[in-house]
Each structure stands twice: as structure tokens, then as C-alpha cells.
Amino acid sequence: MAENILEKLKQTILDFDEDAALDAANEALAAGVDPVEAVGALADGLNELGDKFERMEVFLPEIMLASDAFKNALSVLEPEIKKRNTEGQKAIPVVIGTVQGDVHQVGKDMVATFLTTAGFDVHDLGVDVAPSRFLEEAKKLDAKIIAAASLMSTTRPVQKDLIDFLEAKGVRDNFIVLVGGGVVTQEWADQIKADGYGQDAIATVEIAKKLLHVA
Ligand code: B12
């Protein structure tokens, strides 16, 4: 039963069907499907569509519709995921955003949701975020973590610019910098001296907790 609904969720993304995505998300919750698994199924769909895009089997308008379908379904699933937030834990401020020049948002939103669920106080700066803005907001919020996403090889260098900018301002050691996104690897994170790399939303929560020495 749950398997079928997960497959259905994924299919709504492959069909770039916004209404069906919303309905399937509601159906998943009604059937007691784990909302985290449901989000995983949607992400599988989007990644599969990404491969089709690469093979020129689908085009940008379809991808845009699919990501809107994803966001529709997430709007239903996210409140359920957030309900799991650990009560009573001191919320550690985190700023997150997609780097300047890059408007990909879906994966970053997933990471923000999972960090919130794990008890972090997440401030999402959105997409196309300049290094100076990351720092400005991090200072304002007394953030411990700056998390920067990049989905394209053309914007990946901006993650390095961010770290260089923090160094130039003499504040590099005040923050844990996490990097991630489709084009990012552990090797790249090491190369630019980021503190951590998150391959997916779950791994990001784990690395954030590990670096902050929280359970
Ligand atoms: C959806 C999508 C779009 C949508 C984005 C809509 C939105 N609101 O987000 C739209 C249609 C707008 C779009 C536009 C473009 N796109 Co696009 N897009 C994609 C696609 C198909 C899926 C991305 C996605 O959402 N994946 C699903 C999520 C769940 O995965 P994820 O983002 O990787 O996130 C996970 C991890 O990476 C990690 N993570 C994510 N963020 C972070 C952050 C931190 C801090 C950490 C630790 C971890 C982490 O956790 C997430 C959850 O597990 C990818 C293909 C792909 N396979 O990635 C192409 C892709 C990224 N796009 C691409 C391109 C080229 C473009 C355009 C330039 C196309 C064009 N010709 O105009 C424009 C760029 C516009 C811009 N300036 O940014 C290329 C990039 C190629 C490259 N290597 O440089 C890709 C790879 C497609 C391809 N194969 O060619 N795109």
C-alpha cells in the first residue's frame, strides 16, 4: 500500500502534475505514510526528470512545472515533518541559502525542513544569495552555521567566494560553513576548506550535529 503511494507521488513529478502531486501528498498522509519517505519519493522523481532533461527528453518548462508540483506536495508534507521537532532543545541558529547566480531551491528547502525538524532555528535566505548577505544575516541572527547550496558548475565557485569573503572579513572561525547541492562533492568541500558537506538532507543534519557536538 505505502509502496504504491510512494510510486504514485514520484509519478506525479514525472508527469509534472501539480494537482495530482497535492492529492497524492494528502493521500499519503491519510494512509499513514512517513512524510520523510514521501518527500524522498518526490525527490527521486525530480532527479529522474533531471536525467531526462540531460538526455533532452524533457525541457525547461516541464522541469519548472515539476518543481512546482514538488513544492505543492511539500506544502502538505512539511508541516507534518516539522511536528517532529524535538521540544525543549535549544534552537541553534542556522542561515541557509542558494548561492548568487543560482535559483535552484527545492533541495535547499528540503535541507532547511530537515534541519528545522532536528531542532535548529533555520533562517532561509532563499536563492541567489550573495556572500555579503550570508554574512550580514548570520551576524544579525548570531548564527552558528552558514549553509550554502549550489546546483550548477557555474555557481559552485561562489561557495569558495563565500569562504574567502568570511576569511577576508576576519570572521571565518566564527561560523561552521556547510556546502551541498547537486554539483558539490566531499572533495570540493575539502578543497575550499568548508567545514562540512551534506550529500542529502539527512546527512546534512548528521554532519551539523556532529560539528556542533550535539546529540
Ligand atoms: C528543478 C531544476 C530546475 C528548476 C529549479 C526550480 C526550483 N524552484 O528549484 C528550474 C527549471 C528553474 C531550473 C533552471 C535551470 N537549470 Co536546473 N535543474 C533542475 C533539476 C532537474 C532538479 C534539481 C532538483 O531540485 N533536484 C532535487 C533535489 C531534492 O536535489 P538536490 O537539489 O540535489 O538537493 C539534495 C542534495 O543536493 C542536498 N542539498 C541541496 N542543497 C543543499 C545545501 C546544503 C548546504 C547541503 C549541505 C546539502 C544540500 O540535499 C538535497 C536533498 O537530498 C536539475 C537536475 C538534477 N538532477 O539535479 C537541473 C540542473 C541543476 N539545472 C541545470 C541547468 C543548466 C539549469 C539552467 C541554467 C537551465 C537553462 N538553460 O536556463 C537554469 C538555471 C537558472 C539559474 N540561474 O539558476 C543543470 C546544471 C548543470 C551543471 N552541472 O552545471 C542541471 C544539473 C540539469 C542538467 N543535467 O543539465 N532547473
UniProtKB/TrEMBL annotation:
Database matches in Pfam families: B12-binding, B12-binding_2
Domain B12-binding N-terminal residues, every copy: 1-89
SMART domains noted in UniProt: B12-binding_2
Keyword check for Transcription regulation: no
UniProt entry tagged with the keyword Transferase: no
Keyword field: Cobalt, Metal-binding
GO biological-process terms attached to the record: homocysteine metabolic process; tetrahydrofolate metabolic process
Lineage top rank: taxon: Bacteria
Gene Ontology CC, one term: cytosol
Domain B12-binding: 91-215
GO molecular function list: cobalamin binding; metal ion binding; methionine synthase activity
Family per similarity comment: Belongs to the methylamine corrinoid protein family.
Entry protein name: Trimethylamine corrinoid protein
